[in-house]
Amino acid sequence: LGGQLYQLSKAGKLCVPAMNVNDSVTKQKFDNLYCCRESILDGLKRTTDMMFGGKQVVVCGYGEVGKGCCAALKAMGSIVYVTEIDPICALQACMDGFRLVKLNEVIRQVDIVITCTGNKNVVTREHLDRMKNSCIVCNMGHSNTEIDVASLRTPELTWERVRSQVDHVIWPDGKRIVLLAEGRLLNLSCSTVPTFVLSITATTQALALIELYNAPEGRYKQDVYLLPKKMDEYVASLHLPTFDAHLTELTDEQAKYLGLNKNGPFKPNYYRCLGLPRNQRHLGSDELPALELVFASPTTYAYMNSEK
Ligand SMILES: NC(=O)c1ccc[n+]([C@@H]2O[C@H](COP(=O)([O-])OP(=O)(O)OC[C@H]3O[C@@H](n4cnc5c(N)ncnc54)[C@H](O)[C@@H]3O)[C@@H](O)[C@H]2O)c1
């Protein structure tokens, strides 16, 4: 959704300053990667009661959500194929041990198709026509745009609702595919989202609101801003006690050696753990404006320190 904010901003249609919390590291890692790593299995189990071992799965998109889905399915013994358009994410998929393919190459043989691209019409009617009997089709990405579900509403196909959120779409020759949640987000429709993940995302959103509220007049224009690294670190630090985790503190000598403040931020703003957020990939392209980095107002920092 961060991308859509930038498009609004570029078109001059953004009426207020906006914080792109979607591309914060904590949001990306927990909501997108770790949450999807768990909830893809939950969503598939609750709807289909299937076993994952030995199943052939194709995951479209190897961003944060795709990485989570692939890791979970691989761990369950599934044979996982990946499709990508971005050579960097594609290379990551290869290095992680997944076969990078075009959807057309595997569409006849796979048992499950999962979309995680944030794009539209990734799975078309042509793909759906070529899938084998009982193939499960679902979406973990944006809204309900990734699978062309509308193309399945034609007179020759029969829809049969077999349980809540599960439809069989039946072809004239008897072939049926199993469509989950009518192409909407599988985990949001068919499983639960852990409160821990919600807590991390909500903390990020709350901090962004506090910063927008505290900021002196005129500090933020009608544009899109990212949270600074220090705020991301703060969100993570609030959640560490859950694990009885003990964070190492820099010695004065080490802080000096690395050129860091002992209290953070510990990484530069442009640093992203493993992933490549959408807007960073597009930096310098015509599509999106360059990143504007936020440095929290003193009042927000005071709030963060008082809470610690
Ligand atoms: N289900 C959930 O709980 C959940 C959680 C967070 C985000 N999301 C949504 O999931 C989507 C993906 O999020 P993300 O953080 O992984 O984004 P991302 O940008 O990191 O990853 C998407 C990947 O898809 C690739 N891609 C784009 N078009 C493609 C195509 N036609 N074929 C193959 N690959 C293609 C991109 O190159 C990119 O690497 C977004 O729409 C996001 O809003 C869902």
From TrEMBL:
Q: Which cofactor does it need?
A: NAD(+)
InterPro entries to which the protein is assigned, alphabetical: Adenosylhomocyst_ase-like_sf, Adenosylhomocysteinase-like, Ado_hCys_hydrolase_NAD-bd, NAD(P)-bd_dom_sf, S-Ado-L-homoCys_hydrolase_CS
> What keywords are annotated for this sequence in UniProt?
NAD, One-carbon metabolism
**Residue ranges of the S-adenosyl-L-homocysteine hydrolase NAD binding domain?**
32-193
Q: What's the domain of life for this entry?
A: Eukaryota
The Gene Ontology CC terms held by the record are: cytosol
A GO BP entry is:
S-adenosylmethionine cycle
- Annotated signal sequence range: none
**Family assignment from sequence similarity:** Belongs to the adenosylhomocysteinase family.
State the PANTHER family in the record.
ADENOSYLHOMOCYSTEINASE, ADENOSYLHOMOCYSTEINASE 3
Official protein name in the record:
Adenosylhomocysteinase like 2
Look up and give the organism this protein is from. Answer: Nomascus leucogenys
